[in-house]
Amino acid sequence: MKFLAAVLVGALLATPLFAASEPEIARGDVVVVPLDGQVSQAQLVFLRRVLKNAESAGASALVLDMDTPGGALDAAVDILHLLMKSTVPTYTWVNTNAGSAGALIALATDHIYMAPVSAIGAAAPVSSGGQEIGETMNDKVVSYYSGYFRSAAEEKGHNPELAEAFINKDKVFKMGETVISPYGSVLTLGAQEAVKRYDDKPLLADGLAATLDELKEKAGLSGPTVEIAPSGFERIAQWITVLAPLFLMGGIIGAYLEFKTPGFGVAGFLAGLCFLIFFTGHYVAGLTGMEAGAVFVVGLLLIILELIFFPGLLVFSLLGTALMLGSILFAMVDFYPGDPVIPDVDMLVVPMLNLGITLLLSILGISLLARFLPDIPLFRRVMLATASPSGPSLAIPDGGMFDLAVRPGDTGIARSVLRPSGRAEFGAAVVDVIADGDFIESGTRVRVLEVAGSRVVVEPMG
Questions:
Q1: How far is C-alpha 272 from the geometric centre of its chain's CA atoms?
Q2: What is the pLDDT of residues 28-76, one digit of tens each?
Q3: Sign of the C-alpha dihedral, residues 227, 231, 236, 241?
Q4: Phi, psi of 430 (to 5 degrees)
């Protein structure tokens, strides 16, 4: 049962001990997280985990220590949605740059503070190489994304017109008679411009803060400061969540091969490794807790219980399969503290799509393996060496042909479990055979379907 052992090891590794060591968040803490470098999906993975932990612990505030020239707009939108869900008050400390996507993320926080020498803005879309994109495409991108950021700015009490001026160079933004951003240029604000007051309200930022302590003092935040940095594995975890169907497919196909080749262990180890990567990656990404992995192992144990002690009963295997599939599905659901246990349809769409793709690809892969793998000499030797009982069998002598003394239509008895390879007895002869289709239990009467050289294909008799 090396497959079971591999999965159990994976369950142990996918614990908080496996995650990077970091300060624990307590009630009332002010949690500070860096948002530096290029805005990317990896930062989303990190921020999601920290924000969920902050909400669960009852933190008093979350501060983004921001220094970014920008990055992927789609990642900025995902971070925007994350911050909009937060029940913890959110702050952006622009230290020292909130360019492009960073400016749009800042608009999704409740409060913005600027370092004395800093800037925010210039969110016009560009290509991944930094070049300007075509006019038609630019208009489409600006139209699509500006709606997001106008809504976020308005929801958080920032000026939605200013938000659009950050991304749309055709937007003329004025405060009264003062033109802040003229036609033909995207808006960029220096620190002093961002805190300048119009009609007794700051243009964007609540104030200037040279240090985190100064920010806390001006914002009235009195709780202890807890600074949390991303772990290296969190960047890997983002790719694991993206490639989840492939890891799941590897786990399912590996489990199939393990049950077809008992005692071999390599397929089981690879299956366990794939499931380990899947659950650990989703745990580190903040998408699931330990519960999903535990339920998966319980489902696996039920299936093994039936195979060993109650073959053919189906009750335990059906329940185990349901638990395993359910745990995989819920591991991919993006739960937040306070969300209902039963997710709504929107939360299930992407996980169900990933699981559906996985099952379809796995069925296709297993079908191809069942059809072609038994014909590969190396695979047949491995299966025969691990699945067949000891004792003599008929084989082809070196340098010549040997008559197996069996013909299509002959009947006999399986002397080992055929998964699909094993041995069957035909009169006085014990022959290496391959089952056509699913495995055949030892003691079952079988009929020869095909004889090709040393390859004997059999089927169970009614």
A1: 16
A2: 999 999 998 878 777 887 888 899 899 999 999 999 999 998 887 778 8
A3: negative
A4: -110, 120
